[in-house]
Amino acid sequence: MKVKGRNILLTVMTLCLSLLFLFTIQPSHSITTTTAYAADNSLQRIKDRGKIIMATSPDYPPYEFQVSKHGKSQVVGMDVDIMKQVAKDLGVKLVVKSMSFSNVLVAVETGKADVAMSGINPTPERRQSVDFSKIYYNGGQSFLINKTDAGKYTNKASLAHKIIGAQTGTLQYNLAKSKIPGAKVKGMDKNTDLVLALKTHKIDALGIETPSAEAYVKNDPDLKMIKSGYNLNKNDTGSAMALKKGSGTLVAAINKSITKIKAKGLPNQYLAQAGKYMKVNTHNTSMMHYWTYFAKGIEYTLIISAISVIFGVLLGTILALMRFSKSKLLHAISIAYVEFVRGTPLMVQVMFVYFGIGIVVNLPALLSGIIAVSLNSGAYVEEIIRGGINSVDKGQTEASASLGLAKTDTMRFVVLPQALKNIWPALGNEFVSLIKESSIVSIIGVTDLIYQLNIVRADTYRGVMPVFVAMIIYFVMTFILTRVLNYFEGRMKHAK
Which InterPro entries does the record cross-reference, listed alphabetically (predicted)? Predict the structure, then answer.
């Protein structure tokens, strides 16, 4: 038993070390690219391709958010308009790739996007990982508070020892920690979640850029804005474009375009245009008005779940058969795979497939999400099938052998049909869980139900109702699936 356990451990360690090696060689490649600065072809590469890819998180009005134009959902905002002008100056088309804010810089580092633009502050910490353009807009820093607290919180000093909310990994988060005495800083991935936390009094104030604060105040009468009072270096706190290290020629070309844009006063014009879109979004904030958003979310959720179920079952079956194989290698690989997948979060696996494997193969977000969820489901399905097979009385196998049946025929015609009756309830639970767990793919920009939920929250400035609608939709989908699974389970029980 000790030898067997050691072999499994060695297999798991080999798998982990192989993955580490794969990503250890990537930084050295980046270093080589940076070292060869004189031979930088970042600008020429984009011109040859004919398009520039912009990574953004469209839940941050007025910088970037989504609207429905001509029956189609589009990302708009000041950042998008600025990037459109830059693309025009470069003579290429603009492609906008949406994802969570926490991943926009990663997208640039891994080559998924050429430029990250999402109201990003070029802090010294971020400059270590990416190159930045010059500042294209200085919006300033403010706090959002509940209007009922207007008499209590009037400036930065009054927020001492209070709970301050800020988007995780942002300048606002770091400023609250370093410049407000005794403040307890609560970070969340999305400003829509933070605004909801503010309105439900989970936090006392929200650190946010002034244009976004103004947008919320204009569209939500329960909120009030106060200036931060921070004494900051504008070169570190303005908004800039992030690019991959070593993109000197592209940075120079973008800086030239930014200079022209600022000279013409275009950022303020773009802000005004964004304000018009925001008024359209908030003119009708009923959930029925946004039914197309939810419908698209349902479509992608069902696509991901259905395909992942099929491939998850196939993979799980193969892994289960490997588990019962007399081959020590196949047995060890099966155990190592299951232990590794079950021992790592699905969110990390999704990011690994999209950004990690994407270093070698540029996979679309939807395909990456399906692959990650399928690989994750396969590990759990393997355990379900293994348990079902083990539940079949060994006497059945022995009887089959006495009748001269081959092992493969015994497994196919005797063991698996009986095991299926025991497997089905647990397998059904896995199918239902898959619908809910697939929501994690929204972090890489897959427009599933959770992604659309966050878009509706950002567009309507309504925190609770979109969440409630999404809950009902998930319940309906899982309820229908449960009824269907129960029907077939009943048929199996009565089958002779």
Answer: AA_ABC_transptr_permease_3TM, ArtM/GltK/GlnP/TcyL/YhdX-like, MetI-like, MetI-like_sf, Solute-binding_3/MltF_N
Residue-level pLDDT at 6? 53
The answer to whether the CB of 238 falls within 8 A of the CB of 136 is yes
Domains of the chain and CATH, by start: 40-133+238-283 (3.40.190.10), 141-231 (3.40.190.10), 289-494 (1.10.3720.10)
Instruction: Reduce the DSSP state of residue 330 to 3 states and report it.
Output: helix
- pLDDT tens digits, one per residue of 322-371: 998 889 999 999 999 999 999 999 999 999 999 988 778 888 999 999 99
pLDDT, tens digit, 9 for 90 and up, residues 262-309: 999 999 999 999 988 887 777 778 888 888 889 999 999 999 999 999
Report the pLDDT averaged over residues 366-381: 95
CA pair distance 396, 254, nearest whole angstrom: 72
Q: Which residues contact 205 (CB under 8 A, 6 or more apart)?
A: 143, 144, 145, 153, 159, 162, 163, 164, 165, 198, 226
How many residues comprise the chain? 496
Quickly count: other Cβ atoms within 10 Å of residue 159's Cβ. Answer: 26
Cα 221 to Cα 36: distance, rounded to the nearest angstrom: 54
pLDDT for 406 equals 76
Residues 6+ apart with CB under 8 A from 17: none
Contact assessment for residue 297 and residue 453, using Cβ atoms and an 8 Å cutoff: yes
**Rg for the chain, CA atoms, rounded:** 27
CB neighbour burial string for 435-473, b if at least 16 within 10 angstroms, e if fewer: bebbbbbbbbbbbbbbbbbbbbbbbbbbbeebbebbeeb
The overall average pLDDT reported for the chain is 86
Is the pLDDT at 32 greater than 50, yes or no?
no
Q: Considering only CA atoms, which of 337, 346, 344 is closest in space to residue 368?
A: 346
**What 3-state DSSP class applies to 315?**
helix
Nearest CA among 286, 249, 290 for reference residue 73:
290
The residue behind tokens 């999305």 is: 190
